[in-house]
Amino acid sequence: xxxxxxxxxxxxxxxxxxxxxxxxxxxxxxxxxxxxxxxxxxxxxxxxxxxxxxxxxxxxxxxxxxxxxxxxxxxxxxxxxxxxxxxxxxxxxxxxxxxxxxxxxxxxxxxxxxxxxxxxxxxxxxxxxxxxxxxxxxxxxxxxxxxxxxxxxxxxxxxxxxxxxxxxxxxxxxxxxxxxxxxxxxxxxxxxxxxxxxxxxxxxxxxxxxxxxxxxxxxxxxxxxxxxxxxxxxxxxxxxxxxxxxxxxxxxxxxxxxxxxxxxxxxxxxxxxxxxxxxxxxxxxxxxxxxxxxxxxxxxxxxxxxxxxxxxxxxxxxxxxxxxxxxxxxxxxxxxxxxxxxxxxxxxxxxxxxxxxxxxxxxxxxxxxxxxxxxxxxxxxxxxxxxxxxxxxxxxxxxxxxxxxxxxxxxxxxxxxxxxxxxxxxxxxxxxxxxxxxxxxxxxxxxxxxxxxxxxxxxxxxxxxxxxxxxxxxxxxxxxxxxxxxxxxxxxxxxxxxxxxxxxxxxxxxxxxxxxxxxxxxxxxxxxxxxxxxxxxxxxxxxxxxxxxxxxxxxxxxxxxxxxxxxxxxxxxxxxxxxxxxxxxxxxxxxxxxxxxxxxxxxxxxxxxxxxxxxxxxxxxxxxxxxxxxxxxxxxxxxxxxxxxxxxxxxxxxxxxxxxxxxxxxxxxxxxxxxxxxxxxxxxxxxxxxxxxxxxxxxxxxxxxxxxxxxxxxxxxxxxxxxxxxxxxxxxxxxxxxxxxxxxxxxxxxxxxxxxxxxxxxxxxxxxxxxxxxxxxxxxxxxxxxxxxxxxxxxxxxxxxxxxxxxxxxxxxxxxxxxxxxxxxxxxxxxxxxxxxxxxxxxxxxxxxxxxxxxxxxxxxxxxxxxxxxxxxxxxxxxxxxxxxxxxxxxxxxxxxxxxxxxxxxxxxxxxxxxxxxxxxxxxxxxxxxxxxxxxxx
Length: 938
Fold this sequence. Notes:
It contains 8 helices and 65 strands.
């Protein structure tokens, strides 16, 4: 037996899974010296059951452990899939015309697709007229055009709990995609010896259309065909099925490449004429979109359907400022760009309402790294007028929520709808208002710290006092602004008016609390840092909504003072508005001094300084931004006291290994942070040493891009030197052993031996055929390979990878020339053989009217004395290369056809013989002998 060839027909394929499913759960004698290697192995002891074709169940025990189970699928059939031995027999595929048997058909979700896009096709088995009775297993092949399908871009997945597997546990599958041949083999079988009946959808095919772009002929069609189908019941009876083809018309033009583009990640959003928002013009043009306008498509500023650069506009300078912050030559140019709203005069850079960076920084959007497409992820159930989520943007547009406003790049907004209550013309977030807490209630139901803050928010009218009524803790609130650092604070004599913080802390606090009120006037994260100065003092930090009459906690920090003297909150994407900040003591004796700082905004990485392993950078944080004061590191531990300017660096590593980051040459106290993303909440490591001591971080990093931030402690500014050293710890080594293909067959293989790496391993190969596999073993066999050059790349769990190219040769390509000589004129025929490219000795089998079986070392020989008829010829050379053919010798073995009619002798005359001669060329000589003899010519 050959492990994986369960039905013993010479090939391991999807049909073998069906046989294995029938025998699943069976047990029998173990196979001595068993392995899953593709080689003939002796089955010493037969099992008690046989398949209907007479093959013993022991052939299903591929690994020889005495049990037919999932290991036989994963360890043998999967590894040996597609391998052959000896003569290949039939698998008994059975199909019939549509309308006569259960159908196996595709249903594309769309009849058209753009290059680079993904197409889904639903696979159904059976229908209402022809359901499947007693389904147990199905194997089939799907053929497709490799020129239209992206390499490795064809996959199949079963629908969960479909009618063929109601329990979700009784089905096993095998899926193999040969991207070079354009063939996907799919097999599925039940394993509980119980069939099911039904019809309907069973799976989904997902296809990535190749990005053939402008080279694609218009209307080219991807045809997908199902063939080689075997459907069985629980008794291994074959059920005929009807198949068809699915067609998807691939549209002219380009969508986006399945692989990475070479576009930079510069933030300059554009709205394409196709209605898609891209990160910048490069991504738009990579997608084949050459008409676009700065801004986003999903807002009310740009109508992509109106974008028409060919509009004949006059060359008149009559500038207008578009809602997208772009100055246009005249109104016609703005309209040709699809801009719906604009105002006279050029845009004032100091009064721009639209911030393109905010589009990407906002939590309301996601950017596809491959295509550059920007998508909105805000809650789509929010509708204007149905709740209190709406905000009035500085552009005069009412948005369903702050999330939508920031996703549109709106730099300032006020809660409520634009109109009677809110006038966007009055909005001026840069106005300097007094730091007084004399609360007023705006007509929009928002409490503002004082009248000035309400007016600068564009609120037309307001009344004295907080909107929801007052409270003792609210009345004593101290105003604080974004960017403030309060260095000498105490909660002494503050009083205890809040004991519970629902949603944040269930333990009552009995110590005195100090309350601060903050009106946030810009989008971004809200970062609050508390540094406790009194030794042994345990204070906690809370962030509340703008509700003076009720404690509504948004976030908190209450770590043990035995672990750190810091508390910090990073409230990401905090909407513009009013907040209360509370510093509270756990016990009545929890009284002492502390420092409090607040920062508002996003970490700005647009001007990040690039670093590479081995670089030594000298610079200063004097010109850095002051947007971040808290970094969330190691879970809930927040490290603060950083309201000085920060400088961002990027570090890209290509291999996994240890990275050492050293900050030296300081004249003031700078601190060092390593982030996983451009986000202060993704801190991986930090270094905060006192004074001008060096800062250092040492960490093991995988391949990728990281962010290094140098930040000033309490406003510190200093020159610095930043040194980055990387030590690759990759010890992964790959050794390839090649076995050549024979006689043009796809039976070459590469054994991949791995050492020094961390499993699991990802093994990929490309060449005449390509593929990918994951293995926990240090050895993997790539089989079923035709001759050619292959590149094999292995990667481990630590991110290390290694590649090597090898060539599989072809051992031979046996060719035989056969010259027939037909029988004629009493002469028998002959076959003349001439063998090319073969290696002796040659084994020759000839069957027909006469048969031969012999071995010869000659490449040229003749078989004589052959009567007319058809001969089957099979020749095998010394390398195992085979040749077969059928040859027919024509003609009559005797040469002439002769019929004689006798005329009997009578009383009055002698007898006669009438001759009819066929297959002869005149003149003909006739001779006779008997009572009389003679001859004649005719």
